[in-house]
Design a protein that fits this description.
- By secondary structure, the protein is mainly beta.
- The chain folds into 5 domains: about 100 residues, no CATH class; about 120 residues; about 170 residues, no CATH class; about 100 residues, Immunoglobulin-like; about 80 residues, Macroglobulin (MG2) domain (Immunoglobulin-like, Sandwich), CATH 2.60.40.1930.
- It has 6 helices and 57 strands.
- Strands 15, 16, 19, 24 and 25 form a 5-stranded mixed beta sheet that branches.
């Protein structure tokens, strides 16, 4: 049953002839919350809450018949208004109820007579009206005046010079494109320079005329304003008057007020008649001394020196009858950025000298040679500000200077701290030391001198990580190293610095160059940021040497017949001490690593010591950990002379090359219980061993340390009670006979 109504209605009733009705549902009646009941042949629709069927058209309700027939017709129809009054209706086609004349569909469109798309048939405005641009009709014709550029309704006008839309205007003095009022030195505003007083306001302490003169003509100036004053000085002129005391110092000998034209100043020279009886001296410039100029800005009440002087007549010294200055640069140069630490509100032009407040945070590892540098500077480059005042700390440089507060040693006091140098920090605190240094950014890249035939320790000046190749590609570098065991050796295509994050703010870098000449070097401050490589933590690392901050590069070349698939790691030993490791993960033929040297015996300079390198090469032992069992395999090798890198070649494994030894211990995996903060790690020692245990947090800070102790062979269990520790990731390192085993622990609470 359909309906079409021009008004809302509140109920309906009808019968159906020709069919047997069993139900009624759906349609607008159901959507409007009506209850529709069927009683015999009669259908009744009403609302308990006063809802209405809205005006419009649609399916009123759906009648279900016993046999599915739709041939019935509506009879006995009653339509009620919301006020329970009868409404007029008609029945069309047996199943359509037209109420109060039916619903007229609205015609939507633009109803504004002024619009370009007015629709005379529309009775409902749909906000679609369009209008012509200002000054145009609906067919694009201009109906108002055009400006001097031919733009309809435009605002461009001819300026006082006759240029359309020009910027020239008549100033306060009636001059087209003039400069307006002139401010005289006494503050008077006038249109004529001649109306300005010529009396000096600032440079007034002039000596009496002596008759000795030097005319100074300034014909071309930059940056001066009318009313500014020029003062001529001799920084070592004669000061005393009427005696022979021969006092010298800075003296004003001439001055003038700038009025926009060429400035001519007569300077007064000194007299000396002390070589005759009763003679005396009179103040003024002294022949041959340099001419010095100062400028007083009338508007700013500020004194400064010109940035540049060019002499076309005279040599720039006093004593010439005529000195002609063809250029005086009177602009005030300085930092014009209000956010800078050295902002100069008087600056006319920015000289790129701005620097800003900044800070540098440095983490110092214990018992480690930390190579540190600064990407900032301070007005007071004193050791106390940069090195701190910590107990048990030693700071040194490569010029034999030391800073040891505990012993009162401070040889940096006389030389200060150089932001171009790297500095070596060493301390034996149980935890890392975190220091913060405050200072200023560099406005320009400082120049570093790299010396030949020595190991330079230099600073890194950028505020972000960047590629070592971006800075040193044009420098004859033999080797660059950091304190993390990373190296850059271009001749051997080694660059573990960039593969491990690049050059890092706060790190110092050891640099050795080719040749016999020093090189002036500065960093490329526009070098792009180098994203730090994601370095995974070896959770089950067998060979884990002690890092010392002192290392020498080593490269392992595996022959094509060497089966790397048999190995998961290689350990590098000097005699019986584990000093390096290589994790096999990509099965390549070449691997680069480092040998960690004892920092109480060696320094980075020793990697260029022939006897030290020879000792290391002759005592290197390589051991490989079998990938599928617990065997450690001794691997024979040969070393090559490829300065400055130790190269070990391993051709292949033969039965005579391999000696297997049992693992000295086994460690079971630790599984923290989220409902119990106590974690147990079980391990077995196959031989008598020295063992120590350290647990680190995700930032590398020690949270617990069990000192080294001797244990006989057997099975043991270590329990860590983490009840007072926050949730997070921790790393447990067990050191067994100086070999480290590291596991990751995830603590959840």
């Amino acid at each position: 049953v359909y309906y079409s109504s021009s008004e809302d209605f509140g109920g309906f009733q009808f019968s159906v002839e020709g069919v047997s009705v069993v139900g009624a549902s759906g349609g607008v009646a159901e959507d409007s919350g009506f209850t529709v009941n069927v009683g015999g042949m009669t259908i009744l629709g009403f609302s308990f809450d006063g809802s209405v069927i809205p005006e419009g058209t649609g399916l009123l309700t759906f009648i279900e018949t016993t046999d599915g027939s739709s041939n019935g017709c509506l009879t006995d129809v009653i339509i009620s208004s919301p006020d329970a009054e009868d409404m007029n209706f008609e029945i069309d086609n047996c199943n359509i109820i037209t109420i109060e004349g039916g619903y007229d569909e609205p015609i939507y469109g633009c109803t504004d007579l002024e619009a370009c798309n007015y629709n005379e048939n529309a009775d409902v405005d749909d906000s679609s009206c369009t209008y012509p641009d200002i000054g145009f009709n609906c067919i694009g014709e201009c109906v108002i005046e055009e400006d001097c550029n031919g733009i309809c309704g435009g605002t461009a006008e001819f300026d006082c010079t006759g240029e359309c839309d020009g910027e020239s205007v008549i100033d306060e003095c009636g001059v087209c494109d003039g400069e307006g009022f002139i401010t005289c030195s006494n503050g008077l505003e006038t249109c004529d320079y001649d109306e300005c007083p010529i009396e000096l306001q600032y440079f007034t302490e002039l000596p009496e005329q002596t008759g000795v003169t030097n005319l100074v003509v300034i014909s071309n100036d930059l940056g001066l304003e009318p009313g500014d004053e020029i003062g001529l000085y001799d920084s070592n002129g004669l000061l005393n008057s009427g005696d022979c005391s021969n006092q010298t110092g800075e003296i004003l000998v001439g001055a003038g007020v700038y009025n926009g034209d060429q400035l001519e100043i007569v300077a007064s020279g000194s007299l000396d008649f002390c070589d005759i009886s009763g003679g005396a001296q009179m103040p003024g410039y002294i022949l041959g001394n340099a001419i010095e100029i100062k400028i007083w800005s009338n508007q700013l009440d500020y004194v400064y020196s010109p940035n540049e002087l060019q002499f076309s007549v005279g040599d720039g010294t006093w004593g010439n009858s005529l000195t002609f200055i063809s250029l005086l640069d009177g602009y005030i140069y300085g930092c014009s950025n209000p956010d800078a630490a050295n902002y100069d509100p008087n600056a006319d032009l920015d000289d790129l000298s701005c620097y800003f407040n900044t800070s540098l945070e440095i983490t110092l590892n214990p018992n480690y040679v930390n190579n540190v540098s600064y990407n900032l500077w301070h007005h007071d480059m004193v050791p106390e500000m940069f090195f701190g005042d910590y107990e048990s700390i030693v700071v040194s440089d490569y010029h034999s200077n030391y800073y040891i507060p505990d012993l009162g040693v401070n040889s940096f006091e006389s030389v200060g701290v150089d932001y171009n140098n790297g500095y070596l920090y060493f301390h034996n605190h149980p935890e890392n030391l975190n220091i913060q240094i405050d200072g200023f950014t560099f406005s320009n890249s400082p120049t570093i001198t790299l010396y030949p035939n020595v190991l330079n320790n230099v600073a890194y000046h950028l505020n972000h990580n960047s590629s070592v190749e971006d800075h040193f590609a044009d420098v004859p570098v033999l080797l660059i190293a950091d304190d993390l065991g990373n190296f850059y050796v271009p001749s051997l295509d080694i660059n573990t610095i960039d593969s491990n994050g690049g050059m890092i703010p706060g790190k110092g870098y050891y640099v050795f160059i080719y040749g016999d000449n020093s090189i002036n070097f500065d960093y490329n401050f526009s070098a792009p940021l180098l994203a730090k490589t994601e370095i995974s933590v070896n959770e089950e690392l067998y060979f884990n040497p002690t890092k010392t901050g002192i290392s020498i590069p080593i490269k392992l070349n595996f022959g094509e017949e060497f089966n790397l698939n048999k190995f998961s790691e290689f350990g590098i030993f000097l005699e019986d001490n584990l000093v390096g490791s290589i994790k096999i993960n990509q099965f390549e033929n070449d691997y680069e690593s480092k040998i960690w040297l004892d920092n109480e015996t060696y320094s980075m300079k020793d990697i260029f010591n022939e006897s030290v390198v020879k000792f290391i090469k002759s005592n290197i032992v390589l051991k490989g950990k079998h990938a599928r069992d617990d065997n450690i395999i001794h691997v024979s090798h040969s070393t090559l002379d490829d300065f400055p890198v130790i190269v070990a070649e391993i051709d292949k494994i033969t039965n005579s090359d391999v000696i297997s030894e049992n693992m000295e211990y086994t460690i079971n995996q630790a599984y923290p219980n989220p409902f119990n903060p106590k974690t147990s790690i079980e391990y077995t020692l196959n031989i008598n061993s020295d063992i120590s245990i350290i647990i680190y947090d995700i930032n590398g800070n020690k949270v617990i340390e069990k000192p080294k102790e001797f244990k006989p062979s057997g099975s043991y269990k270590f329990t860590w009670d983490a009840g007072n520790m926050p949730s997070g990731i921790y790393f447990l390192s067990m050191y067994i006979n100086n070999i480290s085993h590291t596991s990751k622990l995830v603590l959840m609470k």
